[in-house]
Amino acid sequence: MSIDFNFIYTSFFQILKALPLTLVITIVPLIAGFGVGLVTALIRIYKVPWVYRIADFYVSFFRGTPMLMHLFLIYYGIPLIIDKLAARYGWAFQSSSIPILVFVLFAFSLTAGAYMSEIIRSGILAVDTGQMEAAHAVGMSTSQALRRIILPQAVGAVLPNLCSMFVGFLHGSTLAFTVSQMDILGKADVVASVSLKFLEAFIAAALIYWGLTVIAERITALLERRVAVYSKGGVS
Amino acid sequence: MISLTNIHKSFGQQEVLKGIDLTVEQGDVVAILGPSGSGKTTLLRCVNFLERADEGKVQISGLTVDCKHARKHDIVQLRRKTAMVFQHYNLFKHKTVLDNVTEGLIIAQKMSKADARERALRVLEQVGLSAKINEYPSMLSGGQQQRVGIARALALNPEVILFDEPTSALDPELVGEVLSVIRSIAQEGITMIVVTHEMGFAREVANRVVFMDGGSVVEEGTPEEVFVRPKQERTRQFLSRYSSDWSYVI
Amino acid sequence: MGKSFDLSLVLDFVPELLRYLHITLIVLSGSIVLGLVGGVLLAVPRLYRIPVLSQLATLYISFMRGTPILIKLFLVYYGLPELLKPLGVDLSRTDPLVFVIVTYALSDAASFAEIFRGAVRSVDKGQTEAAYAAGLTTFQSFRRIVVPQALIVAFPNMANTLIGSLKDTSLAFSIGVMDMVGRGQTLISATSHALEVYISLSVVYYVIVLVLEKGFAVAERRLQRHERKKEVRGPAVRAERLKRIAG
Description:
Chain B is an alpha/beta fold. Chain B has helices at residues 40-47, 72-79, 97-107, 113-126, 142-155, 172-187, 199-205, 223-228, 233-242; strands spanning 2-11, 14-24, 29-33, 55-60, 63-66, 82-85, 160-164, 192-195, 208-213, 216-221. At the A-C interface, helix 3, helix 4, helix 6, helix 7 and helix 9 of A face helix 3, helix 4, helix 9 and helix 10 of C.
């Protein structure tokens, strides 16, 4: 068996240069996804007429199909829509001028939004019904109660899942490779193709992802211990 | 005949059993009393090796097992001569009442399904739960679950039944039904070792009382001797705390 | 993409893609079955604290759960032949399907191991004690008392892993497997209607996932028939609850 361990070492640092892009592809969708997820969760809980059906379908569809499909649907679908609209309204704008990264981030944000929506929704539902009653009893309006009592607890519902969401999307970022993004996997592929040392390059990439995952696990464990003081009573 | 010789047990630095000797004759009903931390439950669990004593010997009708060098095979043999009723019942949650009772018979004692079922029905009738044989434990009250636990132990036809605080986890109004079942099987002459807080019950049903404190046997004798004429100061102190709760008789 | 979007093509593509559904299902079932076996083998050393084996298992599980599926696919694709070369095994003409099943099996084994470990630990120790007290051996107690109860706890998580694995199979095309996605790629080359192809693919996956989820929900309810009957959570009760929460 001939593995060039030295090459694993050198390519490790070369490939690491793509870390910033990977982190962008991981974190931006998580943040955008939280926003999307929060809005859709509320729409679904309050059953806003008609819209909630779309929200339900959105969540169901994006959780029931592979992330790869999301990427390709957006990558091929949005340009079509944009170009059609551009032709109709005479925009001096072509979809091809939009960097691919935008499509990647948009697609993954939708994915994240669907998963977040489900987490937030069950988090809100798990909130003790007495909390809203108590808020009313103290004189808060519904929206005040939502903002100050319910939503903070909904955020608390997301925290335990934060690690698995981060890791999930960190791993999901590798899909960007299929639309020629130079993330960690993309860089590894380039390094591999140039040197023809495919196994070594991918081992290096694997180690980078493994390391990032372990770091993320450690950090969230630390965070959870800090937050645990408040959630002793078992919010969710 | 059961005898425990020189049982020592430590948990880490803490010595919980400091050389206990205990002999139980056939037909005896031995009540073990004492404050929490006295080691009484640990002692009971050493009999069927749910806890492994560091030193000492456990002998049950001819089979002697040295605690320090006990082999898996001997432990299983020893366990087949005993049965246990747990404080938290520990019924097999995924099995019906009937299956709970037949499980040990079929699997451990290799009885045929038909024989096991027959014996199970008999003991379940004895504890008054014939109507519930096809129910799952989660649908029964605590008192009913414990009675199933007793039936499960009875069915195994052991040399001795070990009771680990059988009524401590029950709501007060359910304690009575379990105690009356225990009393009735005691009257049949089954050998029992009962760790309990129910003083009145111990006084009434046991023919021997053992008082433990701090890991040793402080005093033992008939209920008369221990309850009415305790010889040791510690025994007297312990009993005085419970003197108002003596009668839990139905 | 010069051609215009044609929704009716979606209907045409679906049957064509379904012709390769069996490949996807072979990958899925192969990896799940092997993964279950592997999961048990990995969980046992950790549950019984067997020295060396349990540390190796922990390391393996950490690695498998810490790397993306695409990376694992490439590692196995390039690594397995290297690994087996000294043993004289030539994998240069092996169907990529084999590599895919091996990869997903190795990965699923790690997921299942974690699920099993958590499930077994959730079974009340008193159950095992009662089994021992009744005369059962360690093995008998584990098999007849602990495992059935652990499986009920594990089931929802295992179902999720299976559905996740199904979605992951969409990446098999990257090492040349001719499954539904693979066929989709050839359709795109032939017709240049990428969007329609991916819509068809998405629909197929979506339907399969919905069917599986329904099936698992039914199975779960059957498994839990020994639980106490909780308050009925019908739509009326849920609506009431939502009203109280949402004000």
